[in-house]
Amino acid sequence: EMLESFVFDGLIVIHTCLSRGVQVLDPLEAHGVVAVAAAPFAQKRWAISALDELGETIASLIVGEMGATTVEYRDTERPGLAARVYYARMLRRLARHADLFEDEPPQLLGNVDSEEIVAAFYAIEEPGLRRSYLENARRLGEVELREELELWALQEENK
User: For the segment 110-130, what is each residue's pLDDT rounded down to a tens digit?
Assistant: First the structure.
């Protein structure tokens, strides 16, 4: 809604948040924009969703120009995908703190914002994965001095 005064017919608007789909851009569709959600989730793989075929085509072309491939995800599938991706990234970052994978390129480690880690947690339905996710989030918060992440995980563990 904050962007509505800046958009115009035919403008391509892309957001790159993995956990949120293209529906967050719905208010802009009334202004004639081409709305796309496109976010990397693996090396050279991007999750995309769009409001129409034109948006899907544009997203595929843009991502293809970067040498990557696209996978279409419905908006309802994105939070679960984000949770799994963030879980894997937390594990890789923790492994790096344990002096494993020292020579791994930084782009594969994928820094994940603490707020995204928290938001993705609520999409996890499997009890074992929820527990492990919290443990790793707490440890990541501890070793990377992200106090807000560590405290959130401790609070969730004690619920």
Answer: 578 899 899 999 999 999 999
Domains of the chain: 4-72 (3.40.50.720), 78-157 (1.10.1040)
pTM of the model: 0.74
CB neighbours of residue 115 within 10 Å: 12
Residues 6+ apart with CB under 8 A from 145: none
> Of the candidates 15, 153, 48, 17, which has an alpha carbon nearest to the alpha carbon of residue 90?
153
Distance of alpha carbon 130 from alpha carbon 147, whole angstroms = 20
Angle (deg, nearest 10), helices 127-143 and 78-97: 50
